[in-house]
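Hello again, I could really use a second opinion on something today. Take your time with it, there's no hurry, and the full record follows here:

___
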Amino acid sequence: MSNLTVDIPRPPLNSFTLPLMAVFAGCFGFVVGNVFAQPLIGFLIGAAIGAGVALLAHSLPRSRRNVRLGLIVVFGLIGLILVGPGALVAGLLIGAILSWAAYWLGSGAYRSSVPTYYTARQTLWHNSFLFICGLVFFFLIAPLIPVIWLSFNAENFFTFTPEMLNFQAEGYSLKHYRDFLGTEEWMVPLKNSLIIAPFATFISVSLGTLAAIGLSQSHVPGRQAIMAILISPMIVPLIISATGMFFFYAPLGNWLEATLGLNQSFVGYVKVILAHAVLGVPFVIITVTATLVGFDKSLTRAAANMGANPVTTFFRVQMPLILPGVISGGLFAFITSFDEVVVVLFVGSAQQQTLPWQMFTGLREQISPTILAAATILVTVSICLLTTVELLRRRSERLRGMSPG
C-alpha cells in the first residue's frame, strides 16, 4: 500500500508572502525602533527588510539551509556593528525567526499541518491559534528571563549594567549564589522548607489518594459535593484560607503545648505542615482521579475472586497502575508547599521561616540580588519537577493504553 503524497502549491509572492513578511518584520522593527525613540522609522525599515527576505527566499527555494544560515550571520553582524556585543544575540535570533518565517510562508508549509480539505479561513484560524498559544507561552515565560539573567550580576544592583548588556566577563559573577549557599540567613529557611515540604507532601499523598479512590466508587453518596469540598482550597482565595487556618490551628497549637507539653517550635512545625498538607490534597485528588478514569475495575474484581483482601489488592494490583498519577500529585503538592508564603506568615513563627518567606522579607527590608539567585534555584527545581510530572503522565497513558508505547 503506497503512501499518498500531496504537493502543496507555493502561495503567490506579491499578494501573500511579501505583505505578510513585511508586516511581520515591521513588528520587529517597531520594537527595535522604540529603543532608539524612532518606532515608525523602525517599522518601515523592518518592513523593507522583511520584503527583501521574502524575495530572497522566493528566488532561492532549494538553498534553504544556506540562505537561512547566511541571513542569521548577517543579522548578527548588523547587531554587533551597530550596537555592540549585546545586540549580537538579538540579531541572530531575529535572523533565525525571519528566515524561518520566509520559507514557512513562501513554500506553503503553513498548510502541511492541516487537512487538505481545510479552507483558507480554517487554515488561517489553525495557524493563528498556534501563534496565540505560542504568544501566551512567551508572555508567561518572558518575566523569568530577566530574573535568571540578573542573578549573575557582578554588582549589587537590580538593573542590567553596561558590562552585562555587552556580555563582558567582568559583568557576570556567581557571588550571589555563594551568598545564598554560604550564609545562615538563607540556609536556615532552605532547611525549614526541606523539612516542611516532604512531610506535607507525604500527608497530602496519603489522604488525597485514599479520598480519590473512595470518590471513584459509584456507590458513594454525595460524591460531587464531597469532591467540591475537598478541592475548595484551590478555589478559595489563599488569604481567606490562611485566615481560617490561623483561627483553627492557633487554639490547636495552644492545646498541644498545654495538654501534651510539646515544644513550641515543634508545634509550630506541626501547624505549618498540616496547613500545607491541606493545600496539597486537592492536587493529589485531581491527578489520582484522572488516573482512575481509565482504570480497569475488572482487575480488582479478579484479584478479589482469587482470594486477595482489599489491602493486598490495593498494593499489588491498583497501586502500581495509578502510581504515576500518585507521584504526579505528590510533586504538585511538594511544589505548592515549597513555594507557599501566605499561609506560613499566618500559621508559622520566625522559627519556621521558609525560603519564600525569607525572599518576601528580603524584598521588603533589603533589596539584594541574592533573592534573584534564590528565585532562579526555585525556578530550576520547579522545571525539573514539572518535567518529571510530564514524563510520568505519558507513562501513565501508555500503561492505560491511551497512547502508543
Observations:
- Residues 1-5 have pLDDT under 50 and may be disordered.
- The radius of gyration is 28 Å.
- Residues 184-215 form the longest helix (32 residues).
